[in-house]
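Session log. Operator J.P. requested a structure for one protein chain; no other inputs attached. Running the standard single-chain path with token output.
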Amino acid sequence: MIAFIVRRLVQAALVMLAVAFIAFAMFNFVGDPVINMVGQDTPVDEILELRKTLGVDDPMPVRFGRFVVNAVQGKFGLSYRTTEPVARMITDRLPATLELSFVAIIIALAVGIPMGVFSGLYPQHWLSRGMMTVSLVGISLPTFLIGILLILIFAVMLGWLPSFGRGDVVKLGFWSTGFLTVSGWKAVILPAITLGLFQMTLIMRLVRSEMLEVLRTDYIKFARARGLTNRAVHFGHALKNTLVPVITITGLQLGSIIAFAIITETVFSWPGVGLLFLQSVQAVDIPVMSAYLVMIGLLFVLINLAVDILYFVVDPRLRSQGAKAGAK
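Structure written below.
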């Protein structure tokens, strides 16, 4: 187990180094930030001094080394757009994105897994056919269109929920949360449904296909032959083995929800890091864009590491392989 975790940590470090290089190289060729920071009447001497201060004229290996050292310390410099520390800008907005992503994945799991189990156990039922139709709609419609339709129905026509913003938030140290206010809960419902709908349909279809496959295996037939009840067979044997690939997909989807919340945050004016990234792209704010990509890469690496460990715990075949490898 320890050797398995050490191998994954080494792989994670190499991946993060590659992500840092991609972030540094990609966003250092999208434009000259100094041109966007100075006015037309700025003297040449001040422009040269600013370029020297920012280090944009240093050789690329020097700038990349400085970028990696600072990134390890959580330092990403100052924003070219607002001159604020990038780390503080991301820290202030990260709670909004994480809370939105958390609610979205909870909705996706709480709805997707039961729907997948039911449609897998009763594939010919009219309700299962209806669920499959809904899943096709959820996969086919783009996220921004789903968000606009939800705003039109529940915010404009019915007036039940707010159409933008995060509502009232409560400060708990460095963390700001909307889970402690009524307006905060109302504000998160529509964007969470919008963000989690695609993942919900994906999880539902995955669970359904895995259930159909597992129910045809020999050990399920043997369990029925032993006289076990349908409840024990379906939930004690079939569902348990179905959840092994679902853990992997759920982990990857959680990373995708956080990384691709940009569209949802833009539609609902949600003050998260996705909206901050979009604003930074428009202003060619290289430090913020680089920090965002590194942050997303780190989240994916941590989530994949957690998924690998859970997979190792859940699947006895991996444990037996690890034990054999250790014995050799």
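Operator note: The longest helix spans residues 86-121.
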